[in-house]
Structures are given as structure tokens and as C-alpha cells.
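Quick one: structure for this chain?
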Amino acid sequence: MIIDYKEKRLVVFADTHGAHRKLPIVETDIAIHLGDACTFGNNVQLNDFLDWFSNYPAKYKLFVAGNHELQWELEPDEFLELFPQNI
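Got it. Here's what it folds into:
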């Protein structure tokens, strides 16, 4: 979903489950991923997503863990260490 409001653009997506590289790239002010970047705690998918998202053309990038980010529930400290500084 792309929202333009008062000269700001917001891109919101969720439930990519490892298929994030198929999404169109939209230059934006704020990008928000609302969870399920991976499937059932798949670290390969999550790390690939974080690499992709850290390079997404947005000034601000926010990530909300979904129910498939099992790492958040099982090892929250290690989960947070995976995130680049710009997310």
C-alpha cells in the first residue's frame, strides 16, 4: 500500500514470507513492514529480508514482528541484534 499525505509518502507491506524481492521498489519517506517477513522463524529468509530492507529507499524504516518471527519470542535479544542500525 502506498499512501501520499501532505507531501510525505508512506509504503506499508506485510506477510512477505521470504518473497520480499518480488515487491516493487518505491522511493518513500517511511517504509513499514507489519510482520511475517519470514516463514516459521526461517533465519535465512529473515536475514535476506533485513539486508533488502536496510537498502530500501526510505528515510525511515520500521519493522513490526509478526507471528512467524519466532526468533522474537524464543530469543528476543539475539533477534534484535540481527537488525541493522537503519531499521
